[in-house]
Fold each of these.
Amino acid sequence: DGGITQSPKYLFRKEGQNVTLSCEQNLNHDAMYWYRQDPGQGLRLIYYSQIVNDFQKGDIAEGYSVSREKKESFPLTVTSAQKNPTAFYLCASSTGVPEAFFGQGTRLTVV
Amino acid sequence: AQSVTQLGSHVSVSEGALVLLRCNYSSSVPPYLFWYVQYPNQGLQLLLKYTSAATLVKGINGFEAEFKKSETSFHLTKPSAHMSDAAEYFCAVNRMDSSYKLIFGSGTRLLVRP
């Protein structure tokens, strides 16, 4: 079945550590997105990519980095510069239609 | 700038009662509008979307929404709530640029009482 796979489902980060969240899609979608979800704040855009080897910052990119080396993959790295990384992270994709398809999310907790 | 406002962070209804979740948007051009549902610790699932065709949009699980330009609203309704409808609901509008990035409201948690 086609879809978006995020891994891991739960992730724990120590202070000062970089961690990478995986997002893979087999929908053949061109565009991919990373959103951060905090209670009561909805979803906020971190980064997005409309084509391989190209990506742009969203509204809250500070402390995050991404790569888009393959159409299917859009990993997100949460760096030590992100001071409040505890949140639910959602990856999404779209192609030519005004809607997004979402993965099941990764819950990141700082310990 | 575009924005989405969802009135009421929590809505509680009895099973079998009408569900009404409110969404107002701000956009200088005709928008695309969406309602998504999220169950605990899961991703978002598209309920329905408005893309400038019919103003009354029917979605999955018996939900529907009506686009009212004069009121800049896109409220979500369901005639009879079911226990399984308990979830968080997000209204979203697409950004008016060449991408399909979405702007989300802050969400409304629907509680269904037996």
Amino acid sequence: EAQVTQNPRYLITVTGKKLTVTCSQNMNHEYMSWYRQDPGLGLRQIYYSMNVEVTDKGDVPEGYKVSRKEKRNFPLILESPSPNQTSLYFCASSLSGSNYGYTFGSGTRLTVV
Amino acid sequence: GQQLNQSPQSMFIQEGEDVSMNCTSSSIFNTWLWYKQDPGEGPVLLIALYKAGELTSNGRLTAQFGITRKDSFLNISASIPSDVGIYFCAGQEGAQKLVFGQGTRLTINP
């Protein structure tokens, strides 16, 4: 089944403790992206990647890092999480040149206390 | 970053009623997309629009790409309980970047 898989689905952590949210897609898509969803703000793009080793900042990149060492994986790294990063995170992927937007994962709900 | 203005923010309707929501932007988009998000899941694409003035249907859903390329609307006819969820518009802004509206939360009373 074609899908975008994120792990974990739920995570509670403490301020300052480094964490990684993994994302993997099995559709051989070139483009991958991370979004965060907050009430009343819709989805905002954190980082995106157009291919292996090619990444760029989205609208809200502060406090996040990403890497794209393999085409299928695009982990999101929070080096020192803070409470304002408590949010619902979505990974998504898309075929290069496609006009069908992104296919989204099921989300990771992160709470930073 | 840019954000689209989506309205209404929430709707409470009776089963069987028609629904209409819209999205406006200060910038032009070449592609408009409408997504639906069910509780606990990621957004799923409903309709994609590629040309100004285009009207596209997907079952009971109809969406239009505004003539000015700065707006779009989504209609749902004869709503049913499974239509409950959050609907998002999105404009595609080059290099596969999507700019999203704030969402419309649809609640249906049986």
